[in-house]
Each structure stands twice: as structure tokens, then as C-alpha cells.
Amino acid sequence: MKSSVEKHIETISVLQYVLTFLFMGISFTALLFYLMFTSFWIISVLYFLWFFFDCATPEQGGRRSAWVRRWTVWKRLKDYFPVKMIKTAELSPNRNYIFGCHPHGIMCFGPFTNFSTEANNFQQTFPDIRPTLAILSGLFRFPVYRDYLMSIGMCPVSKMSLDYLLSQTGTGNAVMIVIGGAAESLQCVPGEHLLTLRGRKGFVKLALEHGADLVPVYTFGESDLYQQVIFKEGSWMKTLQLHFQKIVGFAPCLFLGRGIFSSESWGLTPFNKPVTTIVGRPIQVPHIPVPSCEEVDKYHRLYIEELQNLFDRHKVSCGLSASQQLTIL
User: Fold this and answer.
1) CB–CB of 205/291 below 8 Å?
2) Beta strands 194-195 and 327-328: pairing type?
3) Cα 101 from Cα 108, distance rounded (Å)
4) Are 187 and 252 in contact, with CB atoms under 8 Å apart?
5) How far apart are the first and last CA of the chain?
6) What is the DSSP letter of 96?
7) DSSP codes joined into one string, 167-208
8) Which class for 150: exposed (0-12), middle (13-18), buried (19 or more C-beta within 10 A)?
9) H-type helices in 86-144, by residue range?
10) In contact, 126 and 174? CB cutoff 8 Å
């Protein structure tokens, strides 16, 4: 049993992640522009000069920090839910990998905790494998926030960035892509397992171009951490969400969690429900620099079959009923 102090520390650890995710980028942007009009203007000038000369770094492997990835706060965040990671097969450091992460959820707590931190000892579980979580490229345009994202091993989910990691940094690289993206986050409903995948084939083509093996990853519990208001198709709010997604790259969700210190009140803190990430078996992919549509379709089908099998093999042990179905759109 956890003491009340331990519970409060875990809750605060989770809340800092949520607030960082939502507000760090825009807050530091506003602060640096404000300082431009004060006696501390030199701070902003020096940082923006650094930003200009360092702008290519996110798409060239980034600049991770083992120290940041091992912060104690990530262990506390993991224990809050708790978040677990289960390995189903060994990964050879002589290959590169593309992890397809499902589902997106609201804030990707599972992929972040397991792949961007050492809270669940990724490096011990998969020796000599270097994980990099690929996220929305636009986030790396925010000052200071970009440096923070790189320090925990994140990169832009751009073609240039992924090509670099899979071709210029040797073997043993694992690039994690949340395939469903913003479209899937709008469908996130507790108790449902709905994926946006059938039309998403770019990651398969990328794997073929570089000969990187595909690894399906499913996080049980990711969709249960928030209550989201789902707007009807054709409503003005749904239309606004889709337009915003098209312009900015992500969709604003209207979601609610629990209060900071009380599960009876509403707030931004996610519900503390178990989150279990299952890392599946790698699908061996040949190196085909210019893959045909037929070849992409073939490995896309193999990937969906393996993902479905992964879900069915582990759903009961992760708290679902045997009749629970995975819906792939």
C-alpha cells in the first residue's frame, strides 16, 4: 500500500508531464519575446542565435541526455498508473527497427514512459537498442521546448529525420512512430479499441526503403486515461477540429481527467488505471530502395495480421474480456 505522501508525489509527477506537454512550448516562446523588450534582451538574442545555428539538429539524430532520461520523476510517473512494458521477442542490435505504436490516446503516456525515459529500463530489456520516439515536427519549432524534447530522445516524424536515423547512424536503432496520429486521438474513447491504420502505409514504405524490421506495439489502457467529448460528424465543433488538424497537424481534444488530489473532482490529471505496453515480434523486412505498391501492400497486410494477433494474445492478461475486438479502420 502506498502512503498518501507517495500518492501525492506520483500525482504531481504526472501533472508536470501534462502541463509540460500542453504549455511549455508556448510559455517559453512568450517569455523569450517578452524579454526582448526588457533589460534582459540579450538572453533572447543569444538563444535565438543558438536556435538559428542549431536548427538542423532535431532532424540529424537530436541530442539526447542519458541523465534526463533517468530522472526520478519518470519512475514516479510510471508508478502512478502503473505503466508496464512486456517484451515478447529479442531484438538484434545488427538490425534497425520501426516500432508502430498503437493506439495514440490523448497524450501517449505508454510510448513516452517506455521509450523516452528509462523508467521501465528499456536499455536493460533491449540491450544495444537505441529508442527514438518520433513526434509532430512542429513541436521542434518552439524555443527551449525543442531542446527538452531532444534531451529525452525524441525526433521529428519527418522523412528527413527518419531517413537520417535509419541510414546514417548504423544499426541498433528503433524509431517509434505513433501511426494513428491526430486522427486517432479524436476517436479515443475509454473501453474501445479503434485504430486508424488501413490507409497509413508510409511507415511500411520507409521500412522497405531502409530494410528496417517492423515491430507492432500495442498499449492496453492508453485510451482509458481520459474522458473525451466526441462531437458528431458534421457538427461545427467536429469541423473546427478537423480544420485545425489540417492546418496545424494535431487536433484539439476536449477531455477531462481527475483532480490533483481527489478522484471525485475533474481536472487535467489522467485517471490512474493500469497501462501495459506489449512490444511484439519483429517482422523481417527486405531492403528495397524503391518498393512497388504491391510490395508495400504485402508488408502492410503482414503488419496488420501480426498486430491483430498481438492484441488477441494479450488482451485477457491485460484485463479485457476474451470477446473484446480490435477495430482497424
Assistant:
1) yes
2) parallel
3) 9
4) no
5) 41
6) -
7) HSS-S-EEEEEETTHHHHHTT--TT--EE--TT--HHHHHHH
8) buried
9) 109-115, 122-125
10) yes
User: Using the 8-state DSSP alphabet, how is residue 38 labeled?
Assistant: S
Instruction: Name the DSSP letter for residue 138.
Output: G
Sheet holding 173-178, edge to edge: 83-87, 275-279, 213-220, 97-102, 173-178, 130-135, 154-156
Q: E strands along 70-167, which residues?
A: 83-87, 97-102, 130-135, 154-156
Which letter does DSSP use for residue 269 in this model?
A: B
Whole-number Cα distances in Å, 191 to 147, 187, 224: 36, 12, 6
The pLDDT tens digits along the chain (329 residues) read 788 899 999 999 999 999 999 999 999 999 999 999 999 999 999 999 999 999 999 999 999 999 999 999 999 999 999 999 999 999 999 999 999 999 999 999 999 999 999 999 999 999 999 999 999 999 999 999 999 999 999 999 999 999 999 999 999 999 999 999 877 888 888 999 999 999 999 999 999 999 999 999 999 999 999 998 877 777 877 777 777 767 666 667 778 899 887 777 888 999 999 999 999 999 999 999 999 999 999 999 999 999 999 999 999 999 999 999 999 99
**Tell me, what's the pLDDT at 253?**
78
Q: Is 62 left (phi over 0), alpha (psi -120 to 50) or beta?
A: left
87: number of CA atoms within 13 Å, CB side? 13
Q: What is the pTM of this model?
A: 0.94
Task: Give the Å distances, CA to CA, from 197 to 101, 109, 183, 327.
Answer: 11, 20, 10, 10
Question: What is the 8-class DSSP label of residue 133?
Answer: E
Amino acid in position 96: N
Which position has the grid cell 491526430? Answer: 182
| Sequence-ordered strand ranges (E) for the chain | 83-87, 97-102, 130-135, 154-156, 173-178, 194-195, 213-220, 227-228, 255-258, 266-267, 275-279, 327-328
